[in-house]
Amino acid sequence: MIVDVRDADGARSAEEQGAEALVVSSAPQGLPAATDLPVLWYSGSAPREAAEAGADAVAIVWDEDEGERSLALRDEALSLGLDYVVEVRTEEDLESALELLDPEIFLLSARGSDDEDGFERALELLPDVPAGKLAIADVPTADREQVLELERAGFDAVIVGARDVAELVHAAPPQV
Fold first, then answer.
1. pLDDT in tens, 82-127
2. Which pLDDT score, from 0 to 100, does residue 176 have?
3. Exposed/middle/buried for 24, CB within 10 Å: 0-12, 13-18, 19+?
4. Taking the domains of the chain in order of start, what are their residue ranges?
5. φ, ψ for residue 22 (rounded to 5)?
6. Interatomic CA distance for residues 17 and 168, integer angstroms
7. Cβ neighbour number for residue 126 with a 10 Å cutoff
8. Residue whose C-alpha is closest to residue 120's, from 110, 135, 129, 105
9. Does the structure show a pLDDT above 50 at 6?
C-alpha cells in the first residue's frame, strides 16, 4: 500500500495505519522527520527536486516521442542516488519503455484518461510486465475489494489516497 499524502501529518497517519510507502507530488514541510517510509516523488518535475525533498525514488512519465528526455531523467535520478519508476499508460508505452530504459519498477497508470476505467486498464497492462519487474497500480479510486483484486492479480503495490488506510489493509489502527 503506497499512500498519496500532502503533508507531514498525513505521512505520520498513513505510517501508523500500515502504509508501506508514500507518494508525494510536492515537498511537504517536515516530511523527512515525520516518517521513515520510502517516498516516491510523483510530480513530473526534475529528479533534483525529488532529491532535495528527501524522496527515495522519482516517477518518470514515459513518452515514446520524448524517449531521449526519459533517458536523461533516468540518468539524472541515478546520479542523485534515486531509484526511478517508469509510468506507462498503454501497452505500446510499456513495450517501448522496456526497450529503451528496462526499468525494474513500472507504474501502471490511468492518469489523464477519461475514456476507460483505470482499474480495468491497470489489470489489462499487468500481463505485459515481465517477470521479475515490480508493478505498481495507480487507479483513480481503490476500495478494499479493488485493492485485494489488484493484489491477487499480481501487483506489488497500489497507490491509494490518504484516507483510512487501515480499512484497505484490513488491519486495525495501532493503539496510541
1. 999 999 999 999 999 999 999 999 999 876 555 457 788 899 999 9
2. 36
3. buried
4. 2-169
5. -125, 155
6. 10
7. 17
8. 110
9. yes
Rounded-to-integer distance, Cα 124 and Cα 116, Å? 11
H-helix or E-strand spanning residue 43: none
Mean of pLDDT values over 3-17: 91
DSSP 3-state of 135: strand
Between CA 121 and CA 151 the distance in angstroms is 15
- The answer to whether residue 35 scores a pLDDT higher than 50 is yes
Q: Cell triple for residue 1? A: 500500500
Residue with cell 489516497: 161
Q: How far apart are CA 53 and CA 121, in angstroms?
A: 31
Distance of alpha carbon 127 from alpha carbon 153, whole angstroms: 9
Domain 2-169 has CATH 3.40.190.10: no
Q: How far apart are alpha carbons 162 and 176 in whole angstroms?
A: 19
Burial environment of residue 115 by CB neighbours within 10 A (0 to 12, 13 to 18, 19 or more): exposed
